[in-house]
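To: structure desk
From: M.T.
Subject: fold request, one chain
Message: Could you run this one when you get a chance? Sequence is below, nothing fancy, just the single chain.
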Amino acid sequence: MYSLEAFGCVLFIALGAGILADQAVSGRQANEPAVKRSKLLLCAAFSLCFLWPVLHIGMYLIAPGHTFLLGTWGTGPFFQCLFNDLAFISGTLLAVLHYRLGSEHKPSDRVFLGLTVFGLAVLLLLSNLFCLFWDNGDCNHSFTSPDGAHTIVVHERSVLLAGSVSVYERVHPLVVRLRASEITDDGYKPIEAGDYAVTWHTDSVTVSFGDGAGEQKSCTLSFAPEA
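Reply: Done. Structure tokens follow.
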């Protein structure tokens, strides 16, 4: 999902954009309304790094058991990494604008600019590494009923010696709802290993899988309307 190469690319883009912004502002008289608009847009882009946690907390409070998932890859940590990258680029440009538009350019101002960009880069790296750790070992697998009426997403998670298989029902292209969960042995991922079976019935589906210890487990989801 994320790597040091990706971090280097984002760092290169941010520094390149900062240099271009510095040249654009210093090469001609800055237009005050344009600068204000640019700062407003950059602040809005910077604040997007807080959007995903707020959405997740709101979802948890409003509809427990529901979570955001686009396809099988669009997890919360994935989007958080993208928003973190955008926040770093926006923060770097804001720091450059603040320095260039200042009335005086003291040597200490350049040091402060460098420390600001360095601090943002450290926060970006730590935040994205945390997202990588949170999403590491997770796999999503999507299955659709023969009539196309229902879709389930089987989520496999492996952390050290702990493993789990959770079955979600897709209730929206961006939202899934947890319906069942089981534990596997030694971080075993039965879907990834091909040790599973998905059986569709008229108003339900059964997901059977090995638990990694020679036993079989199953989860059954009913799609019948609740009384």
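Reply (cont.): Residues 76 and 110 are 36 Å apart (CA to CA). Let me know if you need anything else for the meeting.
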